[in-house]
């Protein structure tokens, strides 16, 4: 077993501190200042607290009880936030649903989680109704006198977060209130989040990065956030406002930063006041890392996370931010490498198991309690972690192991390559052949033989692509992760 990397001298005490407290009560600390903005709409902390309490009363009148599950199937909005905090204030647990899901995908999650109620916007309400579910509108939430504060503990169920399903049917990760608290408080500590910050919040709220980091971190720190449906123009406008609502933080995924940099190439802007840019959910190519430094005015902080554990590793706020490496563990998190260099996690923010799936839960943990992520990692001499791919994506070609991310990092350096994903395709002679799926850049002609020769100068022959497939774009999920199962299915 490889060495463990961890933060904190007394991990048990640190985990207990991060997990302590009552989530709804802490997230809704009163205050007169604006906490959330979207378009022309503003909510102070007092207003948000009152709205959540009234919605909690309305949900109770509809029969929602502490411990029940309530799904939200809607696009991100202030009403989404109010619905979420209202159901938590009522003691219920969230089942967040990707608003892009169609009926078959929604049916699996609703059947598996079996929520008491579905809160939906108009485009999704018909789908939920058609699946036989009780539905109320997120735009017309019921309101009544607030119920008593539910008797919750850090071990109480807070949410069932479904995995992205890039390699199979999504599984429901059981997240308790203590895990949510540990995630949010950890983000405050490592990214120096304070009440002076304004987050430009572009990430979907159904996802753990947007919810557990973006929303919870904002509310716990006493900061504020502006909800924006991502476009480069909208983001830059919020980051360059000439008033006291100008953003100081941005969280995004690599595809967002690519579009943002494309925009800034044509529309330069002074972003020197922005305190931190955070990137995750998919690898940030080193070339994009350097481009961000030039156009944004600083190197982004690349981090690593997973639905079952939240954001668990990050490059430092102070100190070197290294391209291709995701950094050091969050407070209270232990990281180690197991068999086949699998990244394994333990900590107060790690989930407790899969909903109604004891077999999957048992398979997911080691005997000593580490969660097996199925991600392949490498720990450097400085203790920082790099992610090399997924165990299921490991290519065995001619008896040799090939980690796709290692090949992708090389191909991304070629000026004719805009985006690349590497996967293994069946081969009679090799078992699997290394295949590169390429989106060519618009600045230089693409030549397959030249690219393969470029790889052979930098990699052992067995790691080099034997085949190149040119695409207009790579298939990605809502958080920007390449869906390699769709590539190999071609």
Description:
The protein is an alpha/beta fold. It folds into two domains: 382 residues, Rossmann fold (3-Layer(aba) Sandwich), CATH 3.40.50.12780; 95 residues, GMP Synthetase, Chain A, domain 3 (2-Layer Sandwich). Helices cover 31% and strands 25% of the residues. The chain contains 15 helices and 25 strands. The chain has a nine-stranded mixed β-sheet, with helices on both faces. It has a five-stranded antiparallel β-sheet with strand order 1-17-18-19-20. α10 crosses α11. The radius of gyration is 23 Å and the shape is globular. It starts with a strand and ends with a helix. The model has no long low-confidence stretch (mean pLDDT 90).
């Amino acid at each position: 077993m490889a060495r463990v990397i961890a933060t904190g001298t007394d991990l048990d005490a640190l985990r207990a501190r991060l997990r302590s407290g009552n989530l709804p009560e802490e997230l809704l600390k009163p205050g007169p200042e604006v906490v959330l903005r979207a378009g022309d709409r503003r909510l102070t902390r007092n207003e948000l607290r009152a709205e959540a309490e009234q919605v909690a009363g309305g949900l109770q009148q509809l029969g929602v009880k502490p411990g029940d599950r309530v799904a939200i199937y809607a696009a991100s909005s202030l009403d989404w936030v109010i619905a979420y905090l209202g159901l938590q204030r009522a003691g219920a647990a969230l089942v967040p649903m990707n608003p892009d899901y169609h009926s078959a995908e929604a049916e699996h999650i609703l059947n598996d989680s079996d929520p008491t109620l579905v809160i939906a916007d108009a485009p999704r309400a018909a789908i939920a109704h058609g699946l036989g579910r009780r539905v109320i509108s997120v735009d017309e939430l019921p309101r009544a006198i607030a119920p008593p504060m539910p008797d919750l503990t850090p071990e109480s169920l807070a949410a069932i977060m479904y995995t992205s399903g890039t390699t199979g049917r999504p599984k429901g990760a059981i997240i308790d209130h203590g895990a949510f608290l540990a995630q949010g408080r950890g983000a405050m500590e490592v990214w120096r989040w304070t009440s002076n910050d304004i987050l430009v919040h572009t990430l979907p709220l159904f996802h753990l990065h947007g919810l557990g980091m973006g929303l919870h971190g904002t509310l716990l720190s006493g900061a504020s956030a502006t909800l924006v449906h991502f476009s480069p123009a909208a983001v830059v406008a919020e980051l360059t406002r000439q008033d006291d609502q100008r953003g100081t933080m941005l969280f995004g995924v690599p595809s967002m930063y690519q579009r943002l940099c494309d925009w800034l190439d044509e529309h330069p802007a002074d972003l020197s006041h922005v305190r931190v840019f955070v990137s995750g959910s998919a690898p940030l190519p080193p070339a994009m890392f350097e481009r961000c430094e030039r156009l944004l005015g600083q190197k982004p902080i690349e981090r690593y996370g997973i639905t079952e554990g939240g954001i668990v590793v990050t490059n430092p706020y102070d100190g070197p931010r290294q391209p291709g490496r995701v950094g050091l563990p969050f407070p209270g998190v232990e990281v180690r490498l197991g068999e086949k260099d699998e990244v394994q996690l333990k900590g107060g923010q790690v989930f407790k198991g899969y909903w109604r799936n004891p077999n999957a839960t048992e398979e997911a943990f080691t005997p000593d309690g580490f969660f097996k992520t199925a991600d392949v990692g490498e720990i450097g001499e400085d203790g920082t972690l790099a992610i090399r791919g997924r165990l299921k994506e490991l290519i065995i070609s001619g008896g040799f192991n090939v980690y796709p991310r290692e090949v992708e990092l090389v191909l991304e350096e070629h000026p004719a390559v805009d985006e690349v994903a590497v996967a293994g395709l069946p081969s009679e002679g090799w078992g699997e052949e290394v295949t590169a799926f390429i989106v060519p850049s618009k600045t230089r002609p693409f030549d397959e033989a030249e690219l393969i020769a470029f790889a052979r100068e930098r990699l052992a022959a067995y790691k080099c692509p034997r085949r190149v497939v040119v695409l207009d774009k790579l298939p990605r999920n809502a958080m920007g992760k390449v869906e390699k199962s769709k590539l190999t299915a071609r």
